[in-house]
Amino acid sequence: MESYIFNFNEYQDLNLLEIGDQQCTPLYSFSPYIRNEYIFHYVLSGKGYISYAPSTCSDNKILADISGSIEINAGEGFLFEPHSKHIYHADEKEPWHYIWILFKGLCVPQYLRACGLNHGSPVYHPKDYSAQTTTSIKEHLSAILQHPRASKAFIIGHLHLFFDTLIKNAAGSIKSGHANIRIADLYISEAVRYIGAEYAGIRSLDEISNYCNVSRSHLTKLFRANLHMSLQEYLIQFRINKSLDLLASTNLPVYQIAYHVGYENELNFLRAFKKQMGISPSTWRKQNKL
User: Fold this and answer.
1) Residue 261, Cβ neighbours under 10 Å: how many?
2) For the whole model, what pTM was predicted?
């Protein structure tokens, strides 16, 4: 298996976290798992089966459902949204070969709908299954795999082009509630723009909602529905991502970095950082110092 991890936290519209290429062995399986990001597999050859369920279902329930799971063939793909349990396994006689990407971003819901994908419709179906279609879809993922140390613009650019090709070759799209979706995207974009500019000085979530001219509770609902996190969680994540850049590229002490990203209390920053990253800022800096 070939895989690469990326740290492009400044890209809010579309952010690639990981990419991998795997030729599976017969009956290779991935156990029930819950992710915080989107993951999409594009199948190059062979076939396999997926089963998924809301996070309220038990692992045993998913395993029991595998006999009635969905078959995925070459030229197709499958999506798992954040916070959904899933399991998948390769066919015994024709194990699949796929490229997978782990990603997130503001434009992701719109891209996925255009591909005909969401939690209720996790399988990507192309207009046709010709070799030409498969080649055009995998072209941009292959470019990333072949040049994983290229510039951020190269990587993210090819990811956008991959979704563009996926959309152009999709058998159908999901268009229900399109007007409401545009309004939701507008509110979210305005909130993200404000956070990006004022994150260090924001003292209340009401500042953000007032700027967007919408109630705080409604804005939080939009964030949960579209980004799978609350407004507060997004602000914290944005601040922590900014602190990562400062930890890696400067020699500023931790207390100053905490202040620079919007924390008046260093202890609150340390707690938020450890909850988000699993380790202290000092430990992260030692491991990632440029």
Assistant:
1) 22
2) 0.68
